[in-house]
Amino acid sequence: MVWTINYVDDITVSDNYEYVAFIRSQLDHAKFSISGKAFTYEDLKEFKIPTVYDKSSLRIPEVPLLPKYKAVYKFQPLAIVIGKDRYDTFDKAEEVEAKYEPYDGPLYEEVPDNVIYRDYKKGEVSSEKEFSLRVDFNRSSQYSMEPRVIAVKNQGDQLIIHLSTQIPTVVKMLVSEMLEIPQNRISIVVPNVGGGFGLKQDINYEELSVIALAFKLNKNLKWVETRTESILTSQARDQVHELKVGYTDSGKLNYVLDKITYNAGAHPLPFTGISPLFVTLNTMKSLYNFEFYYDAEAKVSNKPPQGAYRGFGRPEAILIMERIMDEIAKRTKISPIEVRKVNIKEKLEGDVGNLNGVIDKLYKKYEEMRRVYGKGIGISLYVQYAAPNSEIMVKHEGSLIPGYECVRARLDLDGWIVIETTLTNQGQRMDSSIRKLVSKELGYDKVKVELAKTNINGYGVWASRSMLTAGNASILAVRKLKEIAKKIDESVDWEKISRIMRQEPWKLKELSVEECYETPEFVGTVSGQIIAVMKDDLGNVKPLYNYIVADVGVTGDDEVVKGQLIGGALQAISGSFLENTEDEIEYSIATAVEAPKFEVELLHTPSNTPAGVRGVGENSISGGYASFINAINDLGLECNSVPCRLVK
């Protein structure tokens, strides 16, 4: 078993913590019994699992933290063992025996057909040409550098939770509801998070179990997820699209009929729910003009709960649409670029940037790469919308989480402008980007950004929202702060003002402003990718060159944005031909060895927001799968599945 050593081991050595390990099911569907010293369903049955979404539309029973008698997926936690250290805990886990009796019935008696949600849109269609296409987008793991870690400490009536999470304020809200204690008794402490990619957008049942058990026993407990546990239980994607497509000889897409099966795994998670399905449906018509009819089912299955992964339903939709565009181009013998231009909507929804500028650059690069590489060229053109606002989150999706983010801007006694936000750092350096935006706005360099604050109204990192919400809120806050400062010193000399405040520090609270922001309309990033691939003598596909163009608006740091785009594109390449959770312990991801040469070109059309920024965190991964799979098909190797396994 692979262990992961991380910050929890370092910061809690002297705090008298005990370690937690889980007894996990070795079968995907079985009745079980536990013998030995372990905590089971009976010990945690009083804790109900809260969610941030409206459960009324889902046909699924309440799922407890630990199952009572039946496992519904392989590696599901069945019981908990506590030891004095990791070695002792794993030794004690080996003394616990789980006996299994395979079970062939439904996952839940209340849902005999396993369908927990259905949505459809029907209509009459006709077209001079038609074809059918099936696209399978299988599961992959978010595979962050650091798996999940948690340390829970009881200190008087306070519960202090050290947690690697993207959503500290949401965690506080969910834990408060689960334990039925006020939020002011809970502290969430977040370090620099060792990678997220959506993995830590949710809080899973293991983390909630550790919190509940620590609270009930009044013990200090910690759990460090192993890499094996992470791969086998932290998963996302998993959609099947059975398509009928109508088109014309001129390359015009008339309609798409789509039978969608969304595999939610054993049960929805508290934050994610089945929201990626809704994002997929909303993304299908983001760029092209056609009639879209669908029959979508969300089903439970004997797989781990499906969570969030960078892109969150967008890669699935963009893969479908870009495969359709290439299939039409192949059948009509019209250039893939021209087919896309023929089908673009007359007016795109929201504020997306310079569409024609992106298309022009994409066309020139496409022609160049055709001349250089010949075959094996794949293209994708797409709009990545970011930062859904409260109307979408609350009104349309029924979520308890709104779309705004608040920040606090203040002056401290040393002359620093401090920006406080609920955002956490997964390596995307949004703290640096916000600092640069604020410094530019004020013409002042002494700016620092403090992350993972839970005493501010905000909801963390997800949906490429950080700069669009917190970045814009920071600009609005420091503008107000500057107006207040003018009343103290007309020249707004921040160093001078801080010296004045040292004489009357009780007045410093006057130089503290909280401001919130959400986008009034969809803000998107129109983008394109082209990748060249080849097939080597062994039949393996090798990516050679990946071009990315995106209208990113105003940025805090161009190099950070380019890094984000390259990283997301490499994740898409990795997911397109390597990653499959069916491989379990042989699961592999792309490294620098498999990476192609990247070229990134940025356009800077300001968005209609105070800072002019756009969301880019999920951009390149959203279109990367489509360009890679299109490149495979351009080689003449038919493949409409992620991952695309050409060599067995």
UniProtKB/TrEMBL annotation:
Q: Pinpoint the Aldehyde oxidase/xanthine dehydrogenase first molybdopterin binding domain residues.
A: 108-344
Q: Which GO terms describe its molecular function?
A: iron ion binding; oxidoreductase activity
Domain of life of the organism encoding this protein = Archaea
Keyword field contains Oxidoreductase = yes
Keywords in alphabetical order, please.
Answer: Molybdenum, Oxidoreductase
Q: Which InterPro entries match?
A: Ald_Oxase/Xan_DH_a/b_sf (IPR036856), Ald_Oxase/xanthine_DH-like (IPR016208), AldOxase/xan_DH_MoCoBD1 (IPR008274), AldOxase/xan_DH_MoCoBD2 (IPR046867), AldOxase/xan_DH_Mopterin-bd_sf (IPR037165)
Task: Identify the residues that the record assigns to the Aldehyde oxidase/xanthine dehydrogenase second molybdopterin binding domain, covering every copy.
Answer: 360-581
**Pfam families per UniProt:** MoCoBD_1, MoCoBD_2
Oxidoreductase recorded as keyword: yes
Q: Which Gene3D superfamilies match?
A: Aldehyde oxidase/xanthine dehydrogenase, a/b hammerhead, Aldehyde oxidase/xanthine dehydrogenase, molybdopterin binding domain
Matches recorded under SUPFAM superfamilies: CO dehydrogenase molybdoprotein N-domain-like, Molybdenum cofactor-binding domain
Q: What is this protein called?
A: Uncharacterized protein
Q: What is the lineage of its organism?
A: Archaea, Thermoproteota, Thermoprotei, Sulfolobales, Sulfolobaceae
